[in-house]
Amino acid sequence: MESPHAEQWQVRSKELRAQAKQMISPEAKSLMLGVADDYEHLTQIAEAMALIRSVLASAIGESRIQDPAMLEPPGSGNAS
Asked: Which segments of 1-80 does DSSP mark as H helices, in order?
């Protein structure tokens, strides 16, 4: 996993699944597993966001190398 946020959600999901195994009440167990599923979904979202950030950072870095005007701060008036 590339994202510390994804790792946090994954850990929480595993913790809840372990707790759900110990539940006696089927309703409580079902609720715990539902929340664990939600945490898994958050894990996937965090991983996707990390990938998007990585791709965007690469694209910005590459475009700055290809277009020297990108090195100028916005509003400086030097970019064409």
From this structure: 4-21, 26-66
Is residue 23 within 8 A of residue 32, CB to CB? The reply is yes
Residues in the chain: 80
Q: Which two tokens mark 65?
A: 């190398």
Torsion of CA 21, 26, 27, 28, to 10 degrees: -30
Rounded Cα distance, 22 and 33, in Å: 12
pTM over 0.90? The answer is no
pLDDT, one tens digit per residue, over 28-77 is 999 999 999 999 999 999 999 888 888 888 888 765 545 544 444 455 55
